[in-house]
Specification:
Protein name: Helix-turn-helix domain-containing protein
Helix content: 40-55%
Radius of gyration: 20 Å
Keywords: DNA-binding, Transcription, Transcription regulation
Number of strands: 10
CATH class of the largest domain: Mainly Beta
Largest sheet: 6 strands, antiparallel
Structural class: alpha+beta
CATH topology of the largest domain: Jelly Rolls
Order of helices and strands: EEEEEEEEEHEHHHHHHHHH
Strand content: 15-25%
Organism: Cohnella soli
Number of domains: 2
Shape: globular
InterPro entries: AraC-bd, AraC_XylS_family_regulators, Homeodomain-like_sf, HTH-like, HTH_AraC
CATH superfamily of the largest domain: Regulatory protein AraC
Distance between the termini: 32 Å
Length: about 280
Protein backbone atom coordinates (compact mmCIF):
# COMPACT_ATOMS: atom_id res chain seq x y z
CA UNK A 1 0.00 0.00 0.00
CA UNK A 2 1.09 3.57 -0.70
CA UNK A 3 -0.30 6.65 1.03
CA UNK A 4 -0.19 10.26 -0.08
CA UNK A 5 0.08 12.63 2.89
CA UNK A 6 1.25 15.65 0.92
CA UNK A 7 -0.40 18.94 1.84
CA UNK A 8 -0.21 20.12 -1.78
CA UNK A 9 -3.59 21.35 -3.00
CA UNK A 10 -4.52 20.99 -6.65
CA UNK A 11 -7.67 22.11 -8.44
CA UNK A 12 -9.15 18.72 -9.33
CA UNK A 13 -12.41 16.99 -8.24
CA UNK A 14 -10.61 14.13 -6.47
CA UNK A 15 -7.17 13.47 -4.99
CA UNK A 16 -5.75 10.02 -4.28
CA UNK A 17 -5.08 9.12 -0.64
CA UNK A 18 -4.11 5.42 -0.72
CA UNK A 19 -3.71 2.69 -3.35
CA UNK A 20 -2.64 -0.92 -3.19
CA UNK A 21 -3.49 -4.61 -3.40
CA UNK A 22 -3.27 -7.51 -0.96
CA UNK A 23 -5.04 -10.22 0.99
CA UNK A 24 -7.73 -8.43 2.98
CA UNK A 25 -7.76 -9.20 6.68
CA UNK A 26 -10.59 -8.54 9.12
CA UNK A 27 -11.05 -4.78 9.43
CA UNK A 28 -13.21 -2.85 11.89
CA UNK A 29 -13.58 0.91 11.61
CA UNK A 30 -15.78 2.24 14.41
CA UNK A 31 -15.61 5.80 13.10
CA UNK A 32 -15.13 4.97 9.45
CA UNK A 33 -12.14 5.75 7.26
CA UNK A 34 -10.93 9.29 6.61
CA UNK A 35 -11.28 8.96 2.82
CA UNK A 36 -13.79 7.45 0.40
CA UNK A 37 -12.85 3.86 -0.45
CA UNK A 38 -13.25 1.70 -3.55
CA UNK A 39 -12.29 -1.96 -3.06
CA UNK A 40 -12.15 -4.41 -5.96
CA UNK A 41 -12.59 -8.09 -5.18
CA UNK A 42 -9.97 -9.79 -7.36
CA UNK A 43 -10.59 -13.30 -5.99
CA UNK A 44 -12.24 -15.02 -3.05
CA UNK A 45 -15.18 -13.71 -1.06
CA UNK A 46 -15.68 -11.32 1.82
CA UNK A 47 -18.47 -9.90 3.92
CA UNK A 48 -19.41 -6.34 4.85
CA UNK A 49 -21.27 -5.17 7.94
CA UNK A 50 -22.46 -1.61 8.45
CA UNK A 51 -22.85 -0.62 12.07
CA UNK A 52 -26.49 -0.14 12.93
CA UNK A 53 -27.57 -3.04 10.70
CA UNK A 54 -28.04 -6.65 11.76
CA UNK A 55 -27.02 -8.39 8.58
CA UNK A 56 -23.76 -8.91 6.70
CA UNK A 57 -23.56 -8.38 2.92
CA UNK A 58 -21.62 -11.03 1.01
CA UNK A 59 -18.98 -9.65 -1.36
CA UNK A 60 -18.13 -11.91 -4.31
CA UNK A 61 -15.56 -11.69 -7.09
CA UNK A 62 -15.92 -9.16 -9.91
CA UNK A 63 -17.45 -6.56 -7.64
CA UNK A 64 -16.46 -3.09 -6.46
CA UNK A 65 -17.35 -2.04 -2.92
CA UNK A 66 -17.77 1.67 -2.23
CA UNK A 67 -17.55 2.90 1.38
CA UNK A 68 -17.87 6.66 1.93
CA UNK A 69 -15.61 8.46 4.38
CA UNK A 70 -16.72 8.39 8.00
CA UNK A 71 -19.02 5.38 7.51
CA UNK A 72 -18.66 2.98 10.49
CA UNK A 73 -18.21 -0.50 9.07
CA UNK A 74 -16.37 -3.77 9.31
CA UNK A 75 -15.41 -6.27 6.66
CA UNK A 76 -13.56 -9.56 6.61
CA UNK A 77 -12.82 -12.54 4.36
CA UNK A 78 -15.29 -15.41 4.48
CA UNK A 79 -12.28 -17.71 4.74
CA UNK A 80 -9.09 -16.35 6.28
CA UNK A 81 -6.46 -15.58 3.65
CA UNK A 82 -8.91 -16.06 0.76
CA UNK A 83 -10.00 -12.53 -0.15
CA UNK A 84 -7.66 -10.69 -2.52
CA UNK A 85 -8.60 -7.02 -2.75
CA UNK A 86 -7.25 -4.08 -4.74
CA UNK A 87 -8.15 -0.65 -3.43
CA UNK A 88 -7.94 3.08 -3.94
CA UNK A 89 -9.17 5.77 -1.56
CA UNK A 90 -9.69 9.42 -2.39
CA UNK A 91 -10.74 12.83 -1.10
CA UNK A 92 -13.29 15.00 -2.89
CA UNK A 93 -16.11 17.43 -2.32
CA UNK A 94 -19.70 16.29 -1.83
CA UNK A 95 -20.77 17.92 -5.10
CA UNK A 96 -17.96 16.20 -7.02
CA UNK A 97 -18.90 12.82 -5.57
CA UNK A 98 -22.59 13.36 -6.29
CA UNK A 99 -21.82 14.16 -9.93
CA UNK A 100 -20.18 10.74 -10.23
CA UNK A 101 -22.99 8.91 -8.43
CA UNK A 102 -21.18 8.50 -5.10
CA UNK A 103 -23.43 9.36 -2.16
CA UNK A 104 -23.04 8.96 1.59
CA UNK A 105 -24.49 5.45 1.29
CA UNK A 106 -22.20 2.42 0.81
CA UNK A 107 -22.85 0.21 -2.22
CA UNK A 108 -21.58 -2.93 -3.91
CA UNK A 109 -21.67 -3.10 -7.71
CA UNK A 110 -20.81 -5.97 -10.06
CA UNK A 111 -18.38 -5.39 -12.94
CA UNK A 112 -17.65 -7.42 -16.07
CA UNK A 113 -13.87 -7.48 -15.80
CA UNK A 114 -11.24 -6.35 -13.33
CA UNK A 115 -8.43 -6.16 -15.90
CA UNK A 116 -8.66 -2.52 -16.96
CA UNK A 117 -9.44 -1.29 -13.45
CA UNK A 118 -6.43 -3.13 -12.00
CA UNK A 119 -4.23 -1.76 -14.76
CA UNK A 120 -5.27 1.81 -13.93
CA UNK A 121 -4.92 1.17 -10.20
CA UNK A 122 -1.36 -0.08 -10.68
CA UNK A 123 -0.52 3.12 -12.54
CA UNK A 124 -2.07 5.16 -9.71
CA UNK A 125 0.10 3.19 -7.26
CA UNK A 126 3.26 4.04 -9.22
CA UNK A 127 2.45 7.75 -8.90
CA UNK A 128 1.79 7.48 -5.15
CA UNK A 129 3.87 7.17 -2.00
CA UNK A 130 7.50 8.31 -2.27
CA UNK A 131 6.96 9.14 -5.96
CA UNK A 132 3.67 10.98 -5.42
CA UNK A 133 2.60 13.02 -8.42
CA UNK A 134 -0.70 14.61 -7.41
CA UNK A 135 -1.70 15.63 -10.92
CA UNK A 136 -0.88 12.29 -12.55
CA UNK A 137 -2.54 10.26 -9.78
CA UNK A 138 -5.71 12.37 -9.93
CA UNK A 139 -5.85 12.13 -13.72
CA UNK A 140 -5.56 8.35 -13.53
CA UNK A 141 -8.18 8.21 -10.78
CA UNK A 142 -10.66 9.98 -13.08
CA UNK A 143 -9.88 7.39 -15.77
CA UNK A 144 -10.45 4.66 -13.17
CA UNK A 145 -13.82 6.16 -12.17
CA UNK A 146 -14.85 6.47 -15.81
CA UNK A 147 -14.07 2.80 -16.44
CA UNK A 148 -15.86 1.80 -13.25
CA UNK A 149 -18.95 3.82 -14.19
CA UNK A 150 -19.01 2.29 -17.66
CA UNK A 151 -18.74 -1.27 -16.38
CA UNK A 152 -21.20 -0.96 -13.51
CA UNK A 153 -23.76 0.79 -15.72
CA UNK A 154 -23.54 -1.99 -18.33
CA UNK A 155 -23.70 -4.88 -15.85
CA UNK A 156 -26.43 -7.45 -16.43
CA UNK A 157 -26.26 -8.74 -12.85
CA UNK A 158 -29.74 -8.38 -11.28
CA UNK A 159 -28.22 -7.13 -8.03
CA UNK A 160 -26.95 -4.02 -9.82
CA UNK A 161 -30.57 -3.05 -10.34
CA UNK A 162 -31.09 -2.71 -6.60
CA UNK A 163 -29.21 0.59 -6.60
CA UNK A 164 -30.16 3.96 -8.12
CA UNK A 165 -29.01 4.57 -11.67
CA UNK A 166 -26.30 7.24 -12.10
CA UNK A 167 -27.75 10.73 -12.19
CA UNK A 168 -31.21 9.52 -11.15
CA UNK A 169 -33.43 11.19 -8.58
CA UNK A 170 -32.43 10.26 -5.04
CA UNK A 171 -35.55 11.30 -3.18
CA UNK A 172 -35.31 10.49 0.52
CA UNK A 173 -38.78 8.97 0.32
CA UNK A 174 -37.99 6.52 -2.47
CA UNK A 175 -34.73 5.42 -0.82
CA UNK A 176 -36.58 4.83 2.45
CA UNK A 177 -39.20 2.82 0.57
CA UNK A 178 -36.48 0.74 -1.12
CA UNK A 179 -34.85 0.09 2.26
CA UNK A 180 -38.20 -0.98 3.69
CA UNK A 181 -38.64 -3.51 0.87
CA UNK A 182 -35.18 -4.92 1.54
CA UNK A 183 -35.79 -5.17 5.30
CA UNK A 184 -39.24 -6.78 5.02
CA UNK A 185 -39.03 -8.75 1.78
CA UNK A 186 -40.24 -11.85 3.65
CA UNK A 187 -43.64 -10.23 4.25
CA UNK A 188 -46.59 -9.98 1.88
CA UNK A 189 -46.19 -6.33 0.84
CA UNK A 190 -48.77 -4.63 -1.37
CA UNK A 191 -48.46 -1.27 -3.12
CA UNK A 192 -51.12 0.15 -0.83
CA UNK A 193 -49.19 -0.97 2.26
CA UNK A 194 -45.87 0.44 1.00
CA UNK A 195 -47.42 3.76 0.03
CA UNK A 196 -49.03 4.01 3.47
CA UNK A 197 -45.66 3.40 5.17
CA UNK A 198 -44.00 6.37 3.44
CA UNK A 199 -47.04 8.65 3.29
CA UNK A 200 -47.19 8.97 -0.49
CA UNK A 201 -49.86 7.95 -2.98
CA UNK A 202 -49.28 4.76 -4.97
CA UNK A 203 -49.05 6.82 -8.16
CA UNK A 204 -46.44 9.20 -6.71
CA UNK A 205 -44.37 6.36 -5.31
CA UNK A 206 -44.42 4.44 -8.59
CA UNK A 207 -43.28 7.56 -10.45
CA UNK A 208 -40.36 8.04 -8.04
CA UNK A 209 -39.28 4.40 -8.38
CA UNK A 210 -39.37 4.64 -12.15
CA UNK A 211 -37.22 7.78 -12.02
CA UNK A 212 -34.70 6.30 -9.57
CA UNK A 213 -34.55 2.57 -10.31
CA UNK A 214 -36.18 2.37 -13.77
CA UNK A 215 -38.73 -0.10 -12.39
CA UNK A 216 -41.89 -0.19 -10.30
CA UNK A 217 -41.88 -0.85 -6.52
CA UNK A 218 -43.23 -4.40 -6.87
CA UNK A 219 -40.77 -5.24 -9.65
CA UNK A 220 -38.01 -3.88 -7.41
CA UNK A 221 -39.26 -6.12 -4.57
CA UNK A 222 -39.01 -9.12 -6.92
CA UNK A 223 -35.39 -8.23 -7.66
CA UNK A 224 -34.61 -7.87 -3.96
CA UNK A 225 -36.07 -11.30 -3.25
CA UNK A 226 -34.27 -13.03 -6.13
CA UNK A 227 -30.93 -11.46 -5.19
CA UNK A 228 -31.37 -12.54 -1.57
CA UNK A 229 -32.36 -16.03 -2.72
CA UNK A 230 -29.23 -16.25 -4.87
CA UNK A 231 -27.01 -15.37 -1.90
CA UNK A 232 -28.73 -17.90 0.38
CA UNK A 233 -28.23 -20.63 -2.24
CA UNK A 234 -24.53 -19.75 -2.38
CA UNK A 235 -23.97 -19.58 1.37
CA UNK A 236 -26.01 -22.46 2.84
CA UNK A 237 -26.32 -25.82 1.08
CA UNK A 238 -28.39 -27.27 3.93
CA UNK A 239 -31.45 -25.13 3.18
CA UNK A 240 -33.97 -26.58 0.73
CA UNK A 241 -35.20 -24.61 -2.27
CA UNK A 242 -38.63 -24.31 -0.64
CA UNK A 243 -37.09 -22.88 2.53
CA UNK A 244 -35.07 -20.38 0.51
CA UNK A 245 -38.22 -19.27 -1.30
CA UNK A 246 -40.18 -18.81 1.91
CA UNK A 247 -37.31 -16.89 3.53
CA UNK A 248 -37.47 -14.29 0.80
CA UNK A 249 -41.26 -14.13 0.79
CA UNK A 250 -42.04 -16.10 -2.38
CA UNK A 251 -44.04 -19.20 -3.20
CA UNK A 252 -41.54 -22.00 -4.09
CA UNK A 253 -42.99 -22.60 -7.56
CA UNK A 254 -43.04 -18.89 -8.34
CA UNK A 255 -39.50 -18.48 -6.95
CA UNK A 256 -38.20 -21.29 -9.18
CA UNK A 257 -39.84 -19.83 -12.29
CA UNK A 258 -38.66 -16.27 -11.65
CA UNK A 259 -35.15 -17.40 -10.66
CA UNK A 260 -34.86 -19.24 -13.98
CA UNK A 261 -36.05 -16.15 -15.82
CA UNK A 262 -33.42 -13.97 -14.09
CA UNK A 263 -30.42 -16.33 -14.00
CA UNK A 264 -31.05 -18.83 -16.79
CA UNK A 265 -31.07 -21.79 -14.37
CA UNK A 266 -33.54 -23.16 -11.87
CA UNK A 267 -32.29 -22.89 -8.23
CA UNK A 268 -31.29 -26.57 -8.00
CA UNK A 269 -29.20 -26.38 -11.17
CA UNK A 270 -27.62 -23.13 -9.98
CA UNK A 271 -26.59 -24.74 -6.69
CA UNK A 272 -25.14 -27.82 -8.48
CA UNK A 273 -23.10 -25.57 -10.77
CA UNK A 274 -21.68 -23.69 -7.77
CA UNK A 275 -20.73 -26.93 -6.08
CA UNK A 276 -19.04 -28.27 -9.21
CA UNK A 277 -17.08 -25.03 -9.59
CA UNK A 278 -15.90 -25.17 -5.97
CA UNK A 279 -14.71 -28.76 -6.42
CA UNK A 280 -12.56 -27.91 -9.44
Amino acid sequence: MRSNLSTEEIAVPFTVYTAGVGQQEEMSRLEGFSAHQLLITVSGKGRLHLFGQNNWDIITDHTVMYIPAGCPSEYAPLINGDWLVAFVSFHGSESARASWGFTDTPSVLPIRSTHRLLELLERIWHHSGPHYDAWAASELLLSFLTEFRKQSADSSDPSALLRPTPGASRSTIVLKAAKYLQDYMHLDISMAHLAEQVGYSQKQLTRLFLQTFKTTPLQYLRRVRLTAGQLILEMDESISIGQVARRVGMDPTYFTREFHRAYGLVPGEYRKRLKARDEE
